[in-house]
Amino acid sequence: MVYLCLYTGMAKKHAESPSPEMLQGTLDMLVLQTLLPGAAHGHTIAHVIEKRSEDVLQVEHGSLYPALHRLEDRGWIASFWGTSDNNRKARYYRLTPAGRKQLTVATSHWERMVRAIGGVLRPVGG
Amino acid sequence: MSWRRFLRRGWWHRERMDELTSYLEIEIAENVARGMTLRDAQSEARRKLGNRTLIQEEIYRMNTVDWLDNAWQDLRHAARLLRLSPGFAAVAILSLALGTGANTAIFQLVDAVRLRSLPVHDPRGLIEVRIAGGNQRMGLNDGLYGQLTRPMFNELKKETRAITDLFAWSPREVRVGRGNDLRRVDALYVTGDFFQALGVTARQGRLLLAEDEGACPATRAVVSYSYWKNEMGGRELDGATGLVVNGQFKQVIGVAPPDFTGLAVGQRFDVVVPFCRPKELRRDVFDITVMGRLALGQSLERATAELGALSPGIMEATVPAGYSAKTVETYERFRLAGYHASSGVSSLRSEYDSSLWLLLVITGMVLLIACANLANLMLARSSVRQHEIAIRLALGASRARLIRQLLTESALIAAVGAALGAALAQALSRLVVWSVSTTTTAVYLPTKIDWRVLAFAAAVGVLTCAFFGIVPALRATRAMPVAAMKSGGRGMTAGKESFSLQHVMVVTQIAICLVLLTGAVLFIRSFRNLMTFDPGMREAGITVAFIGFEQSRVAPERYEDFKRQLAEEISAAPGIRHAAITSNVPLSGASWTHGIHIGAQEGSSKFTWVDPSYFDTMNIHLVAGRNFKSTDTAASPRVAIVNKTFVRRYLGNANPIGRTLRTIAEPNYPATSYDIVGIIPDTKYASVRDDVPPMTFAPATQFPDQAPWTAMMIYSNLTPPAVRNIVVRNHPEMVVDCVDFQTRIRDGFTRERLMAVLSGLFGLLAAVLAMLGLYGVISYIAARRRNEVGIRMALGAQRHEVMGMFLRDAARLVVVGVAIGTVASLLTMRAAASLLFGLKSYDPVTLSLAAVLLAGIAALASFLPARRAAKLDPMIALRDE
Questions:
Q1: pTM (whole model) above 0.90
Q2: Which site among B28, B55, B66 would you substitute to test the A interface, given the most A Cβ atoms closer than 10 Å to its Cβ?
Q3: Distance CA B89, CA B378 (A)
């Protein structure tokens, strides 16, 4: 998996990075997923993720920005400056076609993982 | 790593920071809307965002290219460190610049003379055809490049299959213009297909074609680009453009391209004239160079084999008439062979080849000394920085990273040094070219920078950097952090092992320096020997006049009378003491040999036809017999004066006066018997470097091959131009060149002068560098042993004892260095033996002179730091702890 390989490589290099490996890997997927309905700016993305996960994924909102930077560099999202609901200047992100494809890849991978882990964790004989 | 991100990292940084600010603004606004105070809203928003600096750093790390960033950091660090110690930086960079500059300059010349290919089509395919082993000094050679005769060339062209595009050329000096406005111009006489065979195309008009080679005289000519530009005003050629070459009008039909300066390296041509076909081609004039290209599928070996097989036929068909049977036999044994000619032919190459390579070695050694100096300086510096390095190692810096940083500093010095050196090389190589050019022969070498020279300078830079950077860097980072920090400047005496490498380097420097000084002294003394050598004749005050009187309308049978009258006229003029006719000018490199029989012996002798005043003019006193007299005429019996070597070689102890020698027949020189009437002492002949050959002088009146030209030796207190005015006073139609005899002789010492000047210069440079090295090391040792000296002095050691301690250290290094250097000199200077005059390469005086010179320099270099160390106040040194 290109995506995960790149990811672990990066994680190893910056071991002092605040997010745990697994979470950081999924963070990208979450960001892409958040952008699926339409463009949004960083503040919105952070709050949406936090809310949808019912506050389980309590990340520092700041750690979202390196992830956005990375995703944009890979060409999965694109950005433009716009105005927020309360009339402030904000940078909006939207999914690119490549990002959409990546999201499908990542999601199916994730689902396979979950099924596999679920299978392992199911009580024997249950 | 992403170059895209890397190159725009500044922009990205600002973008993301703006974005974080935007996040904060939105969050604060929402918080306020939820009813928080502004202050709480702000701090809550900041808490939510997290550590802003960390975010920035993470994004920065994503954008950066690690090694490049580190390299840039190291470079700035290195530059800062160098700026902080300008003295060190200046010494380091300057010594490297001098080292690389000298190397590059000499390389540039080697490149120009030896390595560069001709600017013609496919130079690699060019081969030259010569007689294997040369023509045994047979016949006439009027140029430096003469190898074959034209009949040989014609036969060869008919027969050969292995070589195509066979062409021939011959450089000659011609006179362009008419009447009083005659100028000496370098001409190239060529076969018509010369330019086509070389693939050179015209800059303007057209170049010569095979059909331009026709009946004599040739009517067309081509000029070089520089001649066209400078002498003909660079004007468009038209049908009427022409030059009068040696009195004959030639139409100028084209201009050669600017980069084509002929096939002889170091020379150039102004005019190209096609050969013409006279009714009878002379068979004894070896004046052409023959070149061609290998035919398809041929190799040089196969071509040479074919040439060898064709040779007997070619020689038999072209044998010149009038030679003795033995000479004809020699001629018929001549074998032709092919040689690579991709970089042209060069008299410079044969003359300066060994000198240039030797100079390259010498400059290499200078560079080695400079490198050793730098390595020592770097070692000293890194041991000063030992503390810093130890702390950084302890804090977790990797050794590789530290080495990289230290090497960056070396690389910076090397790069700046090499760049400066390459610039310096331009001036230096121009100086060298200028110094080998003489008043009579200018040398043209392109000394422009090309990729080869730049690559050489860069390679030198990289090598020096590796040499002086790696060892100190490895050493500096090897120390155990704890030990280093503990001993940081604290030990009572400095450990021995850290000096040993520096000692080795200083010893090496001194040894190399001695080799270079020995070389310098050898070459300077050799040059001095040449300059002060007495050739056995008068040099000062003599003007050599070359006189051509073709235009004077003198009947051939009156040539001799005309010459004698002219000589009398000239010697009667005010300021002139003597004037003498001669057929050959001594010490000019020219040689005139005839085979002789004397009794039953066969041999050869140099022949010169002179008038009776020659020996007075040249201040040569006869040791026996009589001088020539005015009664020795064309009609009287043939007489000769020979030198002592002649007598020794052919007559032994017998009384030579009255004996007869008989010349062996040659074209225009029938066999003739001469009675020996006088003996002169040995005088040098073609060059002061050569041994004295057997020499025969005969009266000018008895010269068998009278021609409308002569050379005249004129003894006066006038300058050559003044003498020329006297010569042409009554004969404005004559072509006259006057040169100073002594200047002309000394022009022949160019190679020795070059070696003396450059080896002296480089020897001096080496000495200065070695002195700096020794000075640095002794200062460094003294600094490291401050505490020890302090204690010693506190315990009652005297100043001179402390000084003695350091001087003994220095003396030990110098003695070992000189010992090694002496052996090395003896071994290496053997290579220079052939370049020396009047002394052996193992000359003991020279060796001891160089050693004493070096010892003196070394004493000076170590005395200063030793004295400074001894002046130390013990209390201050100890309190420093």
A1: no
A2: B55
A3: 11
